[in-house]
Amino acid sequence: ALGYPEERVWVEHDGVDMGTFAIGLSKEECRDLFGYPKNDLIVGYVGNFHTNGREKGLDDLIRSSKEVLEEFPEVKFYFVGGPMDRVPYYESMISDLKLPRENFKFFDRRPVELVPA
């Protein structure tokens, strides 16, 4: 419908249904629900940290956060999904990169019905 040639369009089987995220709660209400600070600028990741022996990208996010934090030191990174046994590895990366540990928070799995919030 937007004029892109069909051969340049790729449809993934596990895409996001954006309707799932139309929950009728404001950002402030969602943050209250989880006890997150109201005014922090948060970069979030929700999903498994590690699956079937493969990283899901948190290591890449942590490495790239160095550039973000150089320009925007107030940014926080919230990673939700577990497994939590991977957190020491990520904390080691944060330390090795000399990043401020307090800017990174790791949370275990949440019930799927809470994911949109």
What's the topology here?
Elements: H1 27-34, E1 42-46, E2 50-51, E3 54-55, H2 58-71, E4 76-80, H3 87-96, E5 104-107
Parallel strand pairs: 1-4, 4-5
Antiparallel strand pairs: 2-3
Rounded mean pLDDT is: 92
Order of helices and strands: HEEEHEHE
* Helix content range: 25-40%
Strand content: 15-25%
Q: For the CA atoms, what is the radius of gyration?
A: 17 Å
Separation of the first and last Cα atoms: 31 Å
Count of strand segments: 5
Report the structural category: alpha/beta
| Strand order of the biggest β-sheet | 1-4-5
Query: If helices are DSSP runs of H or I spanning 4 or more residues, what is the number of helices?
Result: 3
Short description:
This protein is 27% helix and 15% strand. By secondary structure, it is α/β, with parallel strands linked by helices.
Structural features, described:
This protein has 117 residues and is α/β, with parallel strands linked by helices. 27% of the residues lie in helices and 15% in strands. It contains three helices and five strands. It has helices at residues 27-34, 58-71, 87-96, and strands at residues 42-46, 50-51, 54-55, 76-80, 104-107. Strands 1-4-5 form a three-stranded parallel β-sheet, with no helix packed on it. The protein has a two-stranded antiparallel sheet with strand order 2-3. The longest helix has 14 residues, at 58-71. The chain is globular, with a radius of gyration of 17 Å.
